[in-house]
From TrEMBL:
GO terms for biological process: transmembrane transport. Keywords: Cell membrane, Membrane, Transmembrane, Transmembrane helix, Transport. It comes from Paenibacillus elgii. It is found in: Cell membrane. InterPro entries: MetI-like, MetI-like_sf, UgpAE/MalFG_permease. It is a multi-pass membrane protein. This is Protein lplB. Residues 75-293 form the ABC transmembrane type-1 domain. One of its GO terms (cellular component) is plasma membrane.
């Protein structure tokens, strides 16, 4: 009976199901079929011998990563950069959405939205070039400004000094994604019952109190879901942005994260099995963190599953 009902519902929604089908095929082809490649993490893989001919070595490559002199540095950088992106980057679009929601002039609101959305559609190659130009010691805008107000005597090469890298990376990431990330929160805010605001205004609540008593609690399920996903991606500190902005060898001690380490040591040096082992380890830990965050969130009544 249940099976028959599910089939009838599927047929009734056939047009919608067909819209989902290309996405399912894409995920299956590019995400599930290549999963057999994780076997190389347990082999001394050779492109000439292939999967069947390469010898099995168990957890050799995992042990090599744990014993690597760069292990703690890579893990530290990954966790710190990801944590900074969550602490600073996660609330930023929420704040922007709350501010835009308070703007009554629709023309001004649309202009601000358009300006804040545009950086998302720029590739990191373009953004990194823009940042490099902005921070350049040769007529860079920031150095010209600092010298103009007599804060420095000589230009500072910001992109070669480790103490500035995390600030530059996180600030650039927030600027690039804040507008686009706020779309979901704006949509959630638009769904809040307007009668709640009217009732609160009658009771004497100002706009700030309405934000904390109505808006934020109403969009909390969305915030919790995105927080779960952010925690699950804690080991994904980034790749394109770090690879491009942290290309200077002087920044390696603060810029080398798991993804760039895998690329540099595993891919460039053709240590495919080692790279796969490190990537698989990161994926397993990320899934565990995602499940843990979801379990904790479920206690509050909001979770992914």
């Amino acid at each position: 009976m249940i099976q028959s009902s599910a089939i009838k519902r599927f047929i009734k929604q056939l047009d919608i199901q067909l819209m989902v089908l290309p996405a399912l095929v894409f995920i299956f082809v590019f995400s599930y079929i290549p999963m057999y490649g994780v076997l190389t993490a347990f082999q001394d893989y050779s492109v000439f011998k292939g999967f069947l001919g390469s010898p099995w070595v168990g957890f050799k490559h995992f042990e090599a990563f744990f014993n690597s002199p760069e292990y703690w540095k890579v893990i530290r950088n990954t966790i710190i950069i990801s944590s900074l992106k969550i602490i600073i980057g996660f609330p930023a679009p929420i704040i922007l959405a709350l501010m835009l929601n308070e703007v009554k002039n629709m023309t001004f609101k649309r202009v601000i939205q358009t300006i804040s959305y545009l950086p998302h559609f720029l590739s990191w190659v373009i953004v990194s070039g823009f940042v490099a130009s902005l921070l350049s010691t040769d007529n860079g805008s920031l150095n010209l400004l600092l010298r103009g107000v007599n804060l420095i005597d000589e230009p500072i090469n910001f992109l070669s000094l480790p103490e500035y890298f995390w600030t530059i990376l996180v600030t650039t990431g927030v600027w690039k994604e804040i507008g686009f990330s706020s779309i979901v929160y704006l949509a959630a805010i638009a769904g809040v019952d307007q009668h709640l605001y009217e009732a609160a205004a009658i009771d004497g609540a100002g706009r700030l109190k309405q934000i904390f008593l109505i808006t934020l609690p109403s969009i909390m399920p969305v915030i919790v879901i995105f927080m779960i996903l952010a925690i699950g991606n804690l080991l994904n500190a980034g790749f394109d942005d770090i690879l491009l902005l942290g290309s200077n060898p002087a920044l390696r001690d603060v810029a080398d994260v798991i993804d760039t380490y895998v690329y540099r040591v595993g891919i460039q040096n053709s240590r495919f099995s080692y790279a796969t082992a490190v990537g698989l380890l990161k994926a397993v830990i990320s899934v565990g963190m995602l499940a843990g965050a979801n379990y904790i969130a479920r206690k509050s009544g909001n979770s992914l599953w």
